Amino acid sequence: MPVFVPTPEVSTTTNQTVPYNRSSRVKKGQVFETKNEMIIELGIKCLQEVFEHRTHKSSTTRYEVLCVNNGCAWRMTARMVGDNGMFHVCFFNDVHTCSRTQLNSNHRQANKKVLGALIKKKFLRANRTYHPRDIVDDINQQFGLSIRYATGWRARWNALDSIRGSPSESFTRLPAYLYNLELTNPGTQTSIRVDTEGRFEECFVALGVAIHTFLQNLQRVLIINAAHLKGPYLGTMFLVVAMDGNNNIVPIAFGVGKSETTDEWTWFLSKLKRCIGEPEGLVFMSDRAASINAAITTIFPNSHHALCCRHLVMNVRSRDARIKVYKTPYWKACKAYTTYVFDRMMNILRVAISDGARLIGGVGVERWSRVYFLAFDSLDHPLTEWAQHKLWKRVGKSVTWTIRGIGYNVWEVHDGGRNANVDMHQHSCECRQWQLSGLRCDHAIAVAKKTKIRDLYSLVDVPYFKAENYKATYIGVIKHVGPPETWQFPDTPLQSVRPPIIKKRRVGRPNVNARRPSRGEGSSLRRCPRCGDHGHKSDTCPLFPASASGSSQRSMLEPHGTIRSDSLYQDFQLIS
């Protein structure tokens, strides 16, 4: 129920002029750009002055309103100026002869458009959180109106639409926006795909600055990912990023499509190839999605397709949840520089989680392990902060090591564990860390100190970790296209894009788990925590009598073929 608070000066006599504080939002002679703008401004005036109006006449060329109280002299008339859609207030008697104390169940002007215009400024900051309940409370405090939660919700979305524009309008403007994006950012490449009816299917954007940066200053490793979008037009965002020398993400290309299918990934990657070609040593990294794998094989047949270790361990979890206990040997196997460490960690996984070990071995160890990685950039070109931190940590580790020469520029380094031979001429070490990372390993740094090399810059073999390349990565500027009123248009008509058809959503509450399982990842089978087999629970385990209970009884037997977590890194022999 709305509550109207009359001003102290209001008289209850209906046949005389009632004084009150009038606002100047609408006045005689004023011209508005559109009829809708005039109606909104008049609605805000009604909320501020605590009265309502009703429409007497309304057409495309005329708008006339009266006070909601019969017999009141308040009246406004406006007409369209020419045929340009502007409205001129030609008559306005802004004096009430009513008491303005009549209470109605709903304020006529407290609608989503008027309230949306009032709260619009609160959404100009992108990260602002302003809930419908906050809108209800603010309107009550400011105007003494008790609006419904649903009205606040509609006003919120109306304000957001007035800032962002409607989805259908956005699709119509998309070709002009991308055209101006190419004009203001040289080298930028964009493309839109539509169906036979001109409805949106997919788009691709690669900024010229990003393309140049990737080809000149970054490693040839591209990370591919997809994210599901929310809103009236549900779809998928495609994203391709690279890594700079300071271990930060650099966006290279992005796009929006309907779903994560082979056809859409193939079209998207074909546009990416038009931008960057297929340079030697190019590596793609993604999850095990079949659509991505098929698209990379078709468009970039000479590249290497690596797998994300994080997604891979999620696949293993669906087969065997015990990977959470043995995640340390898994990650050590992923990051191992030598086959000795890799094989030792894999033996632990084969005994502890045989199903998961078969899965990660079956996809190809060259796709996820560092030691068997097929592609490596060996280009010759001060250091980034991340590279300096890495090197200084290695300098501290090698302080007490012993070094002795065993040949020309070949040194033997005793590190207190496994010794390693370093060939300074070939830039190699038996630990293989130097060859694979491009940064000198602990053993090579120990030799550098022994041979009086004090310059950290000389300890880097690839250009990506050097400061000049890192600065060149961000020297480019991405320019804003400006408001739509300033956009340019080509002589030939631009492509026409219609909104896609909205598919009906499934009935019921949506799944709260937003993550889509990767290829090969299904529902996990529950295992018995005692024996590790499927098909029964711990209280019905056949290896233990039904009366067995308590921690002392459970510790009497150890399931065959498992390893205690406290003995993972002790030297012992494992039988496959």
TrEMBL record:
Residues 420-452 form the SWIM-type domain. Residues 509-562 are annotated as: Disordered. GO terms for molecular function: nucleic acid binding; zinc ion binding. It comes from the Eukaryota. The keyword Zinc-finger applies. Residues 530-539 have a biased composition (Basic and acidic residues). Residues 526-542 form the CCHC-type domain. Keywords: Metal-binding, Zinc, Zinc-finger. Pfam families: MULE (PF10551), SWIM (PF04434). PROSITE patterns: ZF_CCHC, ZF_SWIM. This is SWIM-type domain-containing protein.
